[in-house]
Design a protein that fits this description.
The complex is a heterodimer of chains A (about 100) and B (about 170). Chain A is an alpha+beta fold. Chain A folds into two domains: about 55 residues, Orthogonal Bundle (Arc Repressor Mutant, subunit A); about 40 residues. Helices cover about 65% and strands about 15% of the residues of chain A. Chain B is of the alpha+beta class. The chains are: A alpha+beta (about 100), B alpha+beta (about 170).
């Protein structure tokens, strides 16, 4: 979902502060309906919330799904970190054995 | 004046309801509700509206927000109802305007049902601003619904909060 560069840029803009669609659309070369569609995807993913102010819709970043993703990645970073350490130790041992064998 | 609308909510969905009396005929109010030039004056939006059930109603505000709905009731000088769809909110709600002759004026009852509960205060204060603007335009004065919205927003936030906790 965040593979899309416009959606990533929207998230960056909203990390700065809340904005309405007109303000965000002005920053992109794509049409306003296209920006609205990206916002819908982000809203359905729970990354963006909307607040009604009369007819104005104000978009706010909700960082919780990103934090969950970060925590999830963090766990696996620990997992892969250990595997990579083990791999490195294995390679060292192999190198040592080769050196001893010569 | 009991100009405030009510916001009732079950925690998920809310109903926003107004009763306003206007010193105007049902014909004048119907025109304000269905004539794009007059709609713009109090809704602050570019409007297009089909004069029959099943037709489309579109509102486009200057800030870039858009609403597109389908007319579900079109009874001149009595009842206008339509669905309210906007991409920003992802849910379909419904708006209904009832007109009833009362005294030497007309009672307008506005009901917006299916509003997400967490957006109800914004809709309540928003409609309050627009109905005040309708009053001003019927009297031939200019109106700023946005200014009224800002004045009313805290009160509707309080009301929406109260109804949610009941």
């Amino acid at each position: 979902m965040l593979a899309d560069p416009i959606r990533r840029q929207i998230v960056e803009m909203l990390a700065d502060r809340e904005r309405d669609v007109g303000e965000m659309a002005a920053a992109f070369p794509v049409s306003r309906p296209a920006v609205s569609r990206h916002l819908r995807v982000l809203r359905e993913a729970g990354l963006v919330r909307v607040r009604t102010e009369a007819q104005r819709r104000v978009y706010v970043l909700d960082p919780r799904p990103l934090e969950e993703l970060w925590q999830w990645l963090d766990r696996y970073r620990g997992f892969w970190g250990q595997r990579l350490d083990a791999l490195e130790a294995e390679m060292d041992r192999g190198r040592q054995q080769r050196e001893e064998g010569q | 004046m009991t100009d405030f609308g009510t916001v009732s909510s079950d925690g998920q969905m809310a109903v926003v309801r107004f009763e306003r009396w206007y010193a105007a005929s049902a014909e004048q109010l119907w025109s304000a509700l269905t004539d794009p030039d007059r709609m713009r004056r109090w809704l602050g939006a570019e409007a297009s509206i089909a004069a029959s059930v099943g037709g489309a109603i579109r509102l486009r505000w200057e800030g870039g927000e858009e609403m597109e709905g389908v007319i579900t009731a079109f009874e001149p000088e009595r009842l206008l109802a339509f669905t309210w769809r906007e991409p920003a909110l992802g849910v379909e709600s419904a708006v209904r305007f009832d007109l009833r002759a009362e005294g030497d004026g007309t009672l307008l009852i506005l009901e917006h049902v299916g509003v997400p509960a967490d957006q109800a205060a914004g809709f309540g204060a928003g409609w309050h601003g627009h109905l005040d603007a309708l009053f001003a335009t019927l009297a031939g004065r200019a109106a700023d619904p946005q200014q009224r919205y800002r004045e009313m927003a805290p009160e509707y936030a309080r009301r929406a909060g109260t109804s949610e906790s009941q």
